[in-house]
Amino acid sequence: MHHRDPLPASRLPTRRVLVIGLVLIGLGSWYRLTHTVTNQAPPTTQQAAPVPVSPRTPLQSPAHRYQRYLDAIVPESDGLRALAYGKVKDCPAGDRTCVLTELYRFVQQEIGYLADPVAREHIQSPQATLDIGAGDCEDLSILLASLLDNVGIPNYLVFTEDHADTMACEVDSRTIVPTLEQRYAIQQPPVLREETRWIQPWSLSVTTLTATTPLQVDIDLHTSGPLDWMVVPSQQDVEAIQQHRAYRTYPSCSREQMTSFRSTCAIPVGAPLVAYNRQETPIELALTVRYQLPPVPPTLPPIKTYVVNGTQCLPLDPSIKGQAYPGQLMPNVVTAPSRTAVNRAGHLLTLN
Hints:
Elements: H1 12-38, H2 67-72, H3 78-88, H4 96-110, E1 112-113, H5 126-132, E2 134-135, H6 137-150, E3 155-159, E4 164-171, H7 176-183, E5 191-199, E6 203-207, E7 215-231, H8 235-242, E8 255-267, E9 273-277, E10 283-291, E11 306-308, E12 311-316, H9 331-334, E13 339-342, E14 348-351
Parallel strand pairs: 1-2
Antiparallel strand pairs: 3-4, 3-13, 4-12, 5-10, 6-9, 7-8, 7-9, 7-10, 11-12, 13-14
């Protein structure tokens, strides 16, 4: 067995010095580490504020379920801006309700509905939908959202489990019903009245127009002898003529002792048209009257609106075909258990 010789006494202090030095270095490193950590201030509310998530990062965005539809929206396009302007150019400047109404009417009335291919969710670009002339509910909503974006109207896509539509925001609620009544007014066909009659001596022939507003009336008449033709303000004036009393007329549309007359006259509401035979023999009158009755306001369905961030928003469902209006929802949408609205910034809303 071998025995190791003990260290010489002269080497013992050197080893002790090395050990003590290493201990001191370790203590110094520990102190610097603990000092740095304990002196760091806790985060304030501003420092802890969440960073907005880009809509281009689907896995991080809360809207990722709908991201592929949002990505199909084209918010800036010269072609879409030109198309939108052509549809809204007769709207008064700044009338946002008129603009969204006309864009909705274009997509709802002029772009057809076409279901997706079997067993596949096919998302079209706005241009593809225009080229095809049709699309399903998502395609129509994407096209409408793109048009709204291109004219500066904030909007959302709105989803249920089996449907999609659009919602336009920052709408003046006071203008919704008047705008819809004007833009969807029902044009009435022109009125044409052709009459031939004999007027006895010292007698009147009276024609009354049925209207609730003043009319521009085209009058064309011919007679077999001289007649007085008059437009008078009221039935009281007709009675005054019959009783040979003073009466009133509208001079621009009245003539004495004429055999033909053609003119366009502004006829006030309730103003009778009078032919007066002051001759001793009967006179034949051939009268043609043409006029356009004013449009009739539509009977609007219930109009739904939402308040989002203090502003009014109006649902727009371009998938409803036939007669439909902004703010009108399909029955299956109304009864849907939930409706989720999402915009391109990734903001989600639950609509009741």
